[in-house]
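Data deposition worksheet. Section B asks for the primary sequence of the deposited chain exactly as it was used as input, without tags or linkers unless they were present during the calculation. Section C holds the resulting structure in token form. Section D is free text for depositor observations; keep each observation to a single sentence. Incomplete worksheets are returned to the depositor.
Section A, Depositor: J.P.
Section B:
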Amino acid sequence: MLRKLLLGFGLAELAKPQPVIEACERIGLENPSATERRPQALWGARLEGLLFVWALLRGRDGSTVSTALLGLAGTILVVLPRPIIELSQSLVYENTAELEVKSWVVPAARLLGILYLLVVALARPVNGDSPPEDDEGA
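Section C:
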């Protein structure tokens, strides 16, 4: 159930990233109307959605690149959220100095990191499920 919910979120973010970005701005910024997004902001959100979808659909087949990226990003967000928040803001917005981040953005970034790690965990084989072995050597 949770896997399907995360897959749906990834598909929605991939198809329509703007509402997701706008919701995050309303939630995380005191002055969301002051944002000046860079053109690549929508593509960054789509990439996140694509990684979710790819990891959840292909992760059981051994897609290690996407799960490794999500796992690394999730771990860093949990341990060191502030530098990642600052980096992501500089990639997404032209006017980072003018943006007023709400006080609970750091805990929210940690929760996002946990979400990434959850996607990685859900992408792993379950109860002995493993990719089919190659029978050529037998």
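Section D:
The CA atoms of residues 13 and 49 lie 5 Å apart.
Helices lie at 2-15, 17-28, 41-58, 64-79, 81-92, 105-123.
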